[in-house]
């Protein structure tokens, strides 16, 4: 896993990484190829691209930020995977202008849909880049987690605003343009013609537990990781997760997923 030396970072990525790694393994078995082609849209400095490349897969990272791509280039060099990772400047809206259609076994769309003008178009572009039988990994901000966080901080009016706002925003100062429910994300995946796979709640507890407890209590990080994993697939906790993760599978050529 990336950033294993940073307990708080590992808590925030552990569930997604385990699900993604299993999806990669399934695709390897299905194709009979040890090396997959992976597309990471909005991949930034490589938080997922680097560990995917460490598994031996080729990764294309598309990101609109030149600074992020510069950081990616430096990071992959330091990690010894520069030959497996390439960065391309672009965004979800113009994705097919910078990558090929039907060219990738797995597409990561993490932390992207919150910021695009049309989430359905963003998902459709990611799906178009998938090969038949390929997998989409979709991660986005969860509505319930934001409502709970504002309420626990004592901002009850903002919590109620987020609960009733069509975009799930708690006010003009909210840095996140859009949040989703598990049902909304699943509908986006299904609406793009994919078979909807498991939904996971991400950071159900990690953002709520005081950092001093996690950092100082012996065994707390490992115990919290196990708790996050146990709760991730339970629908009851999807409603309070900070992020939501959905897998989607593209049907074989000629098959409607």
TrEMBL record:
Positions of the Methyltransferase type domain: 39-136
Transmembrane residue ranges: none
GO molecular function: methyltransferase activity
SUPFAM superfamilies xrefs: S-adenosyl-L-methionine-dependent methyltransferases
Pfam families: Methyltransf_12
Keywords attached to this entry: Methyltransferase, S-adenosyl-L-methionine, Transferase
CDD domains recorded: AdoMet_MTases
Superkingdom: Bacteria
GO biological process, one term: methylation
PANTHER family in alphabetical order: METHYLTRANSFERASE, UBIQUINONE BIOSYNTHESIS O-METHYLTRANSFERASE, MITOCHONDRIAL
Name under which the protein is recorded: Methyltransferase type 12
Gene source species: Streptomyces roseus
């Amino acid at each position: 896993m990336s950033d294993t030396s940073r307990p708080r970072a590992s808590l925030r990525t552990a569930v997604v990484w385990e699900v993604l790694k299993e999806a990669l393994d399934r695709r390897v078995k299905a194709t009979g190829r040890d090396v997959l082609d992976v597309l990471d849209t909005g991949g930034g400095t490589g938080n997922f691209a680097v560990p995917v490349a460490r598994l031996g897969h080729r990764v294309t990272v598309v990101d609109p930020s030149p600074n992020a791509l510069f950081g990616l280039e430096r990071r992959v060099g330091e990690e010894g995977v520069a030959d497996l990772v390439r960065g391309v400047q672009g965004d979800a809206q113009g994705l097919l202008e910078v990558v090929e259609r039907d060219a990738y076994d797995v597409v990561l769309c993490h932390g992207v849909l919150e910021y695009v003008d049309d989430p359905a178009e963003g998902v459709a572009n990611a799906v178009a880049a998938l090969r038949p039988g390929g997998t989409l990994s979709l991660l986005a901000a969860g509505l319930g987690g934001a409502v709970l966080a504002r309420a626990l901080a004592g901002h009850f009016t903002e919590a109620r605003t987020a609960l009733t706002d069509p975009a799930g925003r708690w006010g003009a100062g909210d840095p996140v343009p859009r949040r989703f429910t598990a049902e909304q994300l699943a509908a986006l995946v299904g609406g793009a013609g994919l078979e909807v796979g498991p939904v996971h709640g991400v950071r159900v507890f990690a953002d709520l537990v005081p950092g001093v407890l996690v950092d100082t209590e012996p065994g707390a990080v490992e115990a919290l990781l196990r708790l996050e994993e146990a709760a991730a697939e339970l629908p009851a906790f999807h409603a309070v997760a900070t992020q939501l993760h959905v897998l989607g599978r593209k049907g074989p050529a000629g098959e409607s997923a």
